[in-house]
Amino acid sequence: MCGIFAYLNYNVARDRRFILEILFNGLRRLEYRGYDSAGISIDSSSQSFLSSDSNGHFSNSVPSPLVFRQEGNIESLVRSVYKDVASTELNLEEPFSVHAGIAHTRWATHGEPSPENSHPQTSGAGNEFLVVHNGVITNYEVLKETLIRHEFTFESETDTEVIPKLAKYVFDKANEEGDQTVTFSQVVLEVMRHLEGAYALIFKSRHYPNELIACKRGSPLILGVKELSEDMGTGASFLDLKFISENGHPKEFFLSSDASAVVEHTKKVLVIEDGEVVHLKDGAVSILKFENGKGKRGTELSRPSAVQRALSFLEMEVEQINKGNYEHYMQKEIHEQPESLTTTMRGRLKRGGSCKAKTVLLGGLKDHIKTIRRSRRIVFIGCGTSYNAALAARPIIEELSGVPVTMEIASDLVDRQGPIYREDTAVFVSQSGETADTLLALEYALENGALCVGITNTVGSAIARNTHCGIHINAGCEIGVASTKAYTSQIVVMVMLALAIGDDAISSRARREAIIDGLFDLPSMFHLASSFNRFLDAECLF
């Protein structure tokens, strides 16, 4: 899975070295996602110059952005960038009061790992449009053939390269037809109209200096906002995006495919939703809604409708994304399981008393639990580890709920258009809440009228927002690619779900109470196992 990151400073001086390090550190925070190459783009100068087009019209222009791409790890990219900077005598101390930089880690899907196939991908000579991309464009071959007929030359094997070239085509066409006022957002919206597949994109262009545009469909993307003024506002204005956009204060913006690259800078974030186009310009954030039916009106590009959104507060600490004294994240997260399981169950398990039964309280399901009990069947839908967690929990869910339980791999369900009925309860399990195939399956289940329940580890994720109800597993940030604490917390949540569904059955009360006692003991058992592992590790040193 690719990682994308961008940094824009507004009305605050940052030198080129500082900007580079922000971009490099953002990529380092995304390393855990897996990658084989990386790249960045920054401005070559803070100065503009006067230029004229073929019709003799004069305008302010900026030099072409610089693009650095390298196969291998991020440190290889860092060495390559500083080597190129030294050879060209680029001034690392040059200040920029406004600057937009983009960065990317690539996991090869189309074409082998190489500088040419790395991102940012470009529209061609001059780097008029640049794009970093997470996802897959499924119709790129058709778009590529069309652009080749319009005399575009392709340098990479990627699906991404069609995007900046399509942006240049749209921009040039609009200018040829006399639309001299075409905006950056109009260009991007027209590009989106031609794209099929799942993607998160960040656009940079020399025609729109110091601006960035981000958009998404299926792949995760967030915006972080950091105000640098002493009077940053409190109360209602603290998370008011309109107020922040209009106050003119110095600020920094961060775009990322993962919150782990943003949390060290700010906790004020906007989770970008599918179909939204976020335009950063002049210290303001504009959010536009992509509507596929709206294209060109005659020779003019359509004017999109604006959307009002509020920022949210990121519930994550920097300490959660640091390895501490552990050799790697997976080891750290294995040893965090006693605490993660305790947090998962906190406030949800009730021991009762001498006269009260032991029970489970799941606030996110309280308005829907009776509907779940009456379901024709419960369908668990997920991918990878989440699917396996549901598979492990299925026997106890069937035993306690008395409702038939079936399992579906999300991609397979969508591909074969498997039966989902109005009388079904569909449970979507995803650690991130942004798994592309699971989101497509959720859309399919909603269309078929099923009650949709989400089990995720991410507050505000797409699955959390779009299901009827759900349960957060509260396992904390998991960075290791192989799931550990999220997997065990998912199983515990599904066991608690089974207990809640079967809570009205008197015949299984003793069994339920025994399971609840076992759940209370679970964190201490994990702690004992972790302590034993540490003892073995220490013994191995001698």
Structural class: alpha+beta
Number of helices: 15
- Note the main sheet: 8 strands, antiparallel
- Topology, number of strands: 24
Kindly state the percentage of residues in helix: 25-40%
Distance between the termini: 40 Å
Sequence of strands across the biggest β-sheet = 5-2-6-1-12-11-13-17
Radius of gyration: 26 Å
Strand fraction: 15-25%
Query: What is the mean pLDDT?
Result: 87
**Poorly predicted sequence stretches spanning 5 or more consecutive residues:** none
Globally, the shape reads: globular
Q: In a nutshell, what does this entry contain?
A:
The chain is 33% helix and 25% strand. It has 15 helices and 24 strands. α10 (384-401) links the parallel β20 (377-382) and β21.
Task: Describe this entry's structure for a reader.
There is one protein chain. With about 550 residues, the protein is of the alpha+beta class. Helices cover about 35% and strands about 25% of the residues. The strands form five sheets. Strands 5-2-6-1-12-11-13-17 form an eight-stranded antiparallel β-sheet, covered by helices on one side. Strands 7-8-9-10-14-15-16 form a seven-stranded antiparallel β-sheet. Strands 21-20-22-23-24 form a five-stranded parallel β-sheet, sandwiched between helices. Helix 11 packs across helix 12. The protein is globular and about 75 Å long. The model has no long low-confidence stretch (mean pLDDT about 85).
Fold topology:
Layout: E1 3-15, H1 16-29, E2 37-42, E3 49-52, E4 58-61, E5 66-71, H2 74-88, E6 95-106, E7 121-122, E8 129-137, H3 140-149, H4 162-176, H5 184-192, E9 197-205, E10 212-217, E11 222-227, H6 241-246, E12 251-256, E13 268-271, E14 276-281, E15 284-289, E16 305-306, E17 312-313, H7 329-335, H8 337-345, E18 349-350, E19 359-360, H9 369-373, E20 377-382, H10 384-401, E21 405-409, H11 410-416, E22 424-430, H12 436-447, E23 451-456, H13 462-466, E24 469-472, H14 485-501, H15 509-540
Parallel strand pairs: 20-21, 20-22, 22-23, 23-24
Antiparallel strand pairs: 1-6, 1-12, 2-5, 2-6, 3-4, 7-8, 8-9, 9-10, 10-14, 11-12, 11-13, 13-17, 14-15, 15-16, 18-19
